Every structure is written in C-alpha cells, then in structure tokens.
Amino acid sequence: MTAQMVLTIGRDALTLLLMVAMPVLGVVMAVGLLVSIFQAVTQIHEATLAFVPKLVAAVVVFAVAGPWMLTTLVDYIRRTIESIPMALG
C-alpha cells in the first residue's frame, strides 16, 4: 500500500463525510437562524425554543435522507473493503 493510496482513501472518506453530513447541518443551521431571528424580533429568549425545532428538523432530515446516507456509506465501506486485496497484493 503506497502513500498515494492512503491519501486517496483519506480524501475520499473526508469528501463522503462532508457530503453525508451536509443535509443535516444545512437544515439545522437554517432552522437555528430562523429561530434566532424569531427570538430577536419577539424578545423571547427561551432555551428550549432554540433546541426543540433544531432537534425536530434533524429528525425529519434523517427520516427523509437517512436511506440515502446509509446507502452511500455502505457503498463506500464495501468498495474500501473490496479494494484491500488489490492494495496488499
């Protein structure tokens, strides 16, 4: 296994990590921004008002995009495990 192969596997893993995490992070960030604007406008500063909508949004995103995330991760792991004999030999 060469250094180039290790760097390629690491780069692919980080790219996949960003691609899989982006839907959840993007939606939670957008909901957090909307809740913050709502809190600033209404001057209601309740901690649960900031937490609960983000939690609900994350659960909804996982319910909608979860199968795609899981399929993508399983495909990457399968490809990585199948490439072990080629890397060693």
Automatic annotation (TrEMBL):
Keywords assigned: Bacterial flagellum, Cell membrane, Cell projection, Cilium, Flagellum, Membrane, Transmembrane, Transmembrane helix
GO terms classed as biological process: bacterial-type flagellum assembly; protein secretion
Topological type in the membrane: Multi-pass membrane protein
Record's keyword annotation contains Transmembrane: yes
Cell location: Cell membrane; Bacterial flagellum basal body
Matches recorded under Pfam families: Bac_export_3
InterPro entries: Bac_export_3, FliQ
Ranges that cross the membrane: 12-35, 55-77
GO cellular component term of the entry, any: bacterial-type flagellum basal body
Domain of life: Bacteria
Function: Role in flagellar biosynthesis.
Record family assignment: Belongs to the FliQ/MopD/SpaQ family.
Protein's UniProt name: Flagellar biosynthetic protein FliQ
Highest classification ranks of the organism: Bacteria, Pseudomonadati, Pseudomonadota, Betaproteobacteria, Burkholderiales
